[in-house]
Amino acid sequence: MMSRSYTNLLDLASGNFPVMGQPREKKRLPRVMTVPGVISELDDDQANSVASDVQSSVFQDRIIIVANQLPVKAKRRPDNKGWSFSWDNDSLLLQLKDGLPEEMEVLYVGSLRVDVDPNEQDDVSQLLLDRFKCVPAFLPPDILTKFYHGFCKQHLWPLFHYMLPFSANHGGRFDRSLWEAYVAANKIFSQRVIEVINPEDDYVWIHDYHLMVLPTFLRRRFNRLRMGVNLKLLAMEQMLKQHPKWQGRAVLVQIANPARGRGKDLEEIQSEIQESCKRINETFGQPGYEPIVFIDRPVSLSERVAYYTVAECVVVTAVRDGMNLTPYEYIVCRQGVSDSESSSESSGPKKSMLVVSEFIGCSPSLSGAIRVNPWNIEATAEAMNEAISMVDAEKQLRHEKHYRYVSSHDVAFWSRSFFQDMERTCKDHFRRRCWGIGLSFGFRVVALDPNFRKLSIEHIVSVYLRSKNRAILLDYDGTVMPQTSHNKTPSAEIISIINTLSGDAKNTVFVVSGRGRDSLTKWFSPCRKLGIAAEHGYFMRWSANDDWEVCGQNGEFGWKEIAEPVMKLYTETTDGSTIETKESALVWHYCDADPGFGSSQAKEMLDHLESVLANEPVTVKSGQFIVEVKPQGVSKGVVAGKVFTTMAERGKQADFVLCIGDDRSDEDMFEIISSAISSGVLSSNTSIFACTVGQKPSKAKYYLDDPAEVVNMLQSLAEASDPEPSSDTRPEGSL
Predict the structure, then answer these.
(1) Which of 170, 143, 141, 169 has its CA nearest to residue 154?
(2) Among 12-26, 224-238, 458-472, 620-634, which stretch is predicted with the lowest mean pLDDT?
(3) Closest CA to 116 of 66, 150, 72
(4) In this entry, which stretches build a coiled coil (predicted)?
(5) CB atoms near residue 412 (< 10 Å)
(6) With 46 labelled, which of 171, 204, 313, 728 sits at a CA distance of 20 to 30 A?
(7) Which residues contact residue 249 at a Cβ distance below 8 angstroms, ignoring those fewer than 6 apart?
């Protein structure tokens, strides 16, 4: 029986959330699409769907920027009749336009900072659309409070900033009504976007954590839519204690941004800050001097600029922050504007100093700043002393470095870079076929090339019969042998099929596998004319009568002594993982580990191995539930290239190529085919059947659903083969 909480979640994901305080209606579960096409075509509620396959007649690109608040200011007119609106020039959203193409139309969707009477909302909406190209989303007061001050500020903001509760008394169980309000608010935003969107032509840029459910709502409608701190005060106190020379000289001006949230925890923090300011000023203050100036009120832009301009150093000690622009604003203000009327002092060399928390997003881009852990009060105090004690020449060099970066990486640069990335990602959006996969907020759209289709057995057999020189390259695990099979030994049926195929004089057949040569030799011993490429091609032989050849560029394996201890460390901490030691490689398997933890460990191990093996002649790659270290220059693509080249050199240029695999390593084989055609190793008339196993993004043009279908297709080819004895027409010699 499905739990009630789960069905409620599915209702919310479908937009079928209840009006808060009213009974829930019983809704059906949304289904999973298993056929290609536009999602709305299978939606029972087609009358309310606005998705369309009809191409728009409007070809000019337009971008819809969606954020919690619109970049406009609103105030009541003096006569209390209507509203007056103006652009908010401090809004980051407004500055994004500077980085977009000049001809691109920009439309904003968001909420207003004021309450608009429902009777006025239509008029306000029309006014904002006509004059500002803004579409307001009006949130009912009960939803707004629970959405913004509740879920966003009490749950999401602390979570995304790795924040513990502000005070010991704050906390409690998850409040589902806040979550429902969050989903309801996102639904309202989606409705406003749907009212104005042209899904075939518009880009949609959604900002910030307030609207994380919005992409799901839009994707369900348009599957081809193009989206893309008191520690500082304590550090000042510590600096005045450790360096008495600054007493009576150094002043910390703390500008407190007005809290956008509210609650008992914030009140306690504000009370603590006030007490700290009072204590420090009473301890170190003198007549006419207070070391702490605490500004707890809204500060205008001009006043903030004035403070930045005269400050010797700016200290930003947020314990977590994403986009903090204070350091950038300070650098620009310290640079100032040089003109003929400037005083000699202001037109001289510019200098600035920054002390920033290592936990804020802009920290990596400020290489001249002194980075600190704000929780370490003593270290922060020393950093503040170092910053204001530094010689002017050093301050000047650091300022020049920062100003070069800030002046060239402004909002327009960021906006332009983001849009270019989104444009590149969406370039072939409307050429692709789409599948809707998953339930609830796990719903995703998979877009595949329109030429990607299921391999027709009848078609490949007919081409096979007409060809004279065939190259057949088969992966093993996940291709002819199911990944889930515990017994990996090939069945008698598989041995018979491969033996028949390799026994045809027109065929050159290879099993190209990551497995070791001993296992492959034992398993395929009955197939005397079968070629085997083991360990991704490090070892290779053309038939059972030939010797194994080493195809790697380097036979030194001293790197194993470095890599193996690292793998053992992760094996000990990841239950279900194992290490496979090959002759030329080391492989860490985690298919039997917890999927989430195993994947996380694999990513961490990959970075660890790449770091310690940076100077070794090896490559570190991740695959399907594996991390592998192998010699450079070894891949299945190299094997395919050698097979095609040798056949051509011996006058047996392949006119039929069948290449099948299921994971990332097999993509190298698919990729090499194109270069083989362009270099003349394969003819442009060669019939190519590059086939992946499973419907997924791939460089192959064909797919089969599972190993059972692969075996069935190979059986059909075997039945069309000529198994009669003939002289060995394999190219003389071996690779």
Answers:
(1) 170
(2) 12-26
(3) 72
(4) none
(5) 14
(6) 204
(7) none
Strands (E), 584-717: 586-589, 618-623, 626-631, 656-661, 687-693, 702-704
Give yes or no for a contact between 697 and 667, defined as CB atoms under 8 angstroms apart. no
Tell me the C-alpha to C-alpha distance, in Å, between residue 700 and each of 703, 704, 706, 720, 729: 8, 11, 15, 24, 29
Q: Which residue has the tokens 């420090």?
A: 280
Calculate the alpha carbon distances from 582 to 536, 542, 631 in Å: 11, 21, 12
Q: How far apart are CA 63 and CA 54, in angstroms?
A: 20
Q: Please write the tens of the pLDDT for every residue from 634-658.
A: 889 999 999 999 999 988 999 999 9
User: Model pTM?
Assistant: 0.51
* Mean pLDDT for the stretch of residues 293-313: 88
Tokens of 395: 């301050």
DSSP string for 434-446: EEEE-SGGG-EEE
pLDDT band at 728 (very low <50, low <70, confident <90, very high): very low
Copy the structure tokens of residue 574: 């990841």
Distance, in Å, from the CA atom of 273 to the CA atom of 279, rounded to the nearest integer, reads 10
Buried b (16+ CB within 10 A) or exposed e, 23-56: eeeeeeebeebeebebbbeebeeeeebebeeeee
Q: Which two tokens stand for residue 344?
A: 């000699």
**Residue partners of 127: CB distance under 8 A and separation at least 6:** 83, 85
> What tokens does 133 get?
């190209």
Bin 109: left if φ > 0, else alpha if -120 < ψ < 50, else beta.
beta
Strands 292-295 vs 252-255: parallel, antiparallel or unpaired: parallel
pLDDT in tens, 567-584: 999 999 899 999 999 888
**What are the CA-CA distances from residue 354 to residues 337, 350, 439 (Å)?**
20, 14, 48
What's the token pair of residue 129? 């659309």
The set of residues, in sequence order, having a beta carbon less than 8 Å from that of 170 and lying 6+ positions away, is: 263, 264, 265
With contact defined as beta carbons under 8 Å apart, do 165 and 158 qualify? yes
Condensed to tens digits (0 to 9), the pLDDT of residues 249-266 reads 988 898 876 665 555 556
| Cα-only R_g, the chain | 33
Bridge-partner residues for 435, per DSSP? 446
For 507-663, strand residue ranges (E) read 507-512, 531-534, 539-541, 549-550, 578-581, 586-589, 618-623, 626-631, 656-661
Strands of 450-575, DSSP E: 453-454, 470-474, 507-512, 531-534, 539-541, 549-550
- Across the range 157-161, mean pLDDT stands at 78
Q: Which residue has the tokens 């409307």?
A: 430
